[in-house]
Design goal:
12% of the residues lie in helices and 35% in strands. The protein is mainly beta. The protein is globular, with a radius of gyration of 24 Å.
């Protein structure tokens, strides 16, 4: 948990509908949210020498927004197990609407246009079915019970969270933005990422701030949440801490880099191998449950794809995974084999099933499926077994890592070369069903954004959402907000219930999970 020293200015920005974090040294223009004439206020205070916190409040409650019931439209697929979805083609939406009318209800079928991004959007996503428009969620919930009685399902939601172009242009908010700015001329602290005690355990952003003595912190990369998808807390993509690659990249996806040369947003791949007796063996991953690849983007034999696919767990029955002490006290248990290495790389033991302690200063290698026999043939007690992993840039060149290098995963990219460049398709957010894109990209959600501006200052942004007092941002709006702070490169980090900003031990925003602040995989921390 060593914190790297940063020789540039960093800003931490948190957007909270009614309580957001924004960028220090704010731009002269207003936030590009809603009509230009909305009221916007900004207040700045110094957190420590070289670090300021700016709070931005923009807009007010939208009188045209309200609570509605959005119907889950049955699939038109011949597969009886195909799930219902928020969007359908026009025929499917009309069929669902006719069923509701037959029950005496008054649905409306709505076309859903979506803003153009760099590689997605710009057309209609499909059609949705909605009923009613109410001042309170309780009224919408009452109507939802009638939808269920009619044989369909749905959810009560606030129309202020919609992401259609007309909604983006006409919504009045409110939004709250908070920004931590670090001025390199006055700041002599550190900016780093930490995963806490080990990868497998999750901690809240405020806990990680306390553990590191941070003045301020924001949540960072995507991570495994469901044990069925791996080890909860494991980065769902690249993780480099104090110059050590402890989690392999989701191949081709962008990541936030904090390094000796400053801050950047870059794309990575990697290669790894195990060398022992006989020919080298390909390594599939680092510090994760074998066979499970969260967000995909792994090797060619992974299913259903080797390309990035967000919030999807790809599988591979034949894998070789290396572990070190950053993972946890014990490695994942299960069928397969595991080789134990001491700090010199010598094989000290071979387990005929997986799971056990990692020796101090040592490592282990686990194999499943067809990789068990090759690993057992390569690993001989008393002989050396070397583990090699190389991070590669998007041109296939090795990336040098120093102790001052930190990299956390994210996506999609938002800004490139100072221009809006949101790459939802390349980064795995465009999937077989438009409903995923609709909920994740198109709609307003809590967001955490990071980037670097044209003066070399690092900017970290969090935006609250899923609340009538905090509408959140669509990906289109996230890119526009990033650009409004003159970021030349920007990336979307983990959002939703993970979005959190902490300053002086206090959570500044309103996390959207019903249980409160969510334990996360890692966080970006600023210390004195």
């Amino acid at each position: 948990m060593t914190l790297r020293r940063l020789g540039l200015s960093a800003l931490c920005l948190s957007l909270t509908l009614g309580g957001t974090t924004a960028v220090a040294t704010p731009p002269t223009e207003h936030l590009p949210l809603g009509p230009a004439n909305l009221t916007e206020t900004r207040d700045t205070r110094t957190m420590q020498p070289g670090v300021t916190l700016t709070t931005i409040v923009r807009g007010q409650s939208d009188t045209s927004a309200g609570w509605t019931v959005e119907v889950s439209i049955p699939s038109s697929s011949p597969d009886p197990d195909a799930p219902a979805a928020a969007l359908s083609d026009e025929a499917g939406a009309n069929k669902a609407a006719d069923k509701l009318r037959a029950a005496g209800l008054e649905p409306r079928v709505e076309n859903v246009p979506t803003p153009r991004l760099a590689d997605a959007g710009g057309d209609s996503l499909g059609y949705r079915v909605r009923l009613g428009l109410f001042a309170t969620k309780a009224e919408a919930d009452a109507l939802r019970t009638k939808v269920i009685a009619a044989g369909l399902n749905g959810s009560s939601l606030y129309t202020g969270w919609d992401g259609e172009p007309d909604d983006i242009a006409g919504s009045t908010g409110p939004w709250h933005v908070q920004v931590l700015t670090i001025d390199p001329k006055k700041f002599h602290g550190t900016l780093d990422a930490t995963y806490g005690q080990d990868i497998e355990q999750r901690e809240t952003t405020s806990t990680l701030a306390t553990l590191t003595g941070a003045t301020a912190a924001v949540n960072a990369g995507f991570f495994v949440l469901d044990p069925k998808s791996g080890a909860p807390g494991d980065p769902a993509g690249i993780g480099v801490y104090d110059g050590r690659l402890v989690s392999e990249p989701t191949n081709g996806r962008p990541a936030l880099v904090l390094g000796p040369r400053g801050t950047s947003v870059d794309r990575f791949t990697w290669r790894g191998e195990v060398r022992g007796v006989g020919k080298p063996l390909p390594l599939d991953g680092l510090n994760r449950v074998p066979g499970l690849i969260r967000n995909c983007g792994g090797t060619a034999d992974d299913l259903p794809t080797a390309k990035p696919m967000h919030d999807t767990t790809c599988t591979d029955p034949d894998e070789l995974i290396a572990f070190d002490a950053s993972y946890a006290a014990l490695t994942p248990s299960g069928p397969g084999a595991e080789v134990i290495l001491d700090r010199r790389g010598m094989v000290t033991a071979v387990r005929t099933s997986r799971g056990g302690a990692i020796p101090e200063g040592g490592r282990t290698v686990q194999a499943i499926g067809a990789m068990v026999a090759p690993l057992l043939a390569a690993a001989k007690v008393g002989k050396s077994l070397s583990i090699r992993s190389t991070l590669l840039d998007d041109h296939g060149r090795p990336v040098p890592l120093s102790r001052r290098t930190t990299i956390v995963n994210g996506g999609p990219e938002l800004v490139r070369d100072g221009r809006i460049h949101a790459t939802a398709a390349a980064d795995g957010m465009v999937q077989d069903t438009p409903s995923f894109y609709y909920g994740w990209v198109h709609k307003r959600n809590p967001r955490t954004i990071a980037g670097v501006d044209d003066h070399g200052r690092t900017v970290l942004i969090t935006a609250d959402g899923r609340n009538v007092n905090s509408l959140g941002l669509s990906i289109s709006e996230s890119a526009a907000v990033a650009k409004s702070f003159h970021l030349r490169e920007a990336i979307n980090l983990d959002g939703g219930g993970s979005t959190t900003m902490v300053a002086d031990g206090t959570v500044l925003n309103t996390p959207s999970d019903a249980a409160g602040e969510r334990p996360v995989g890692d966080a970006l921390v600023i210390t004195k």
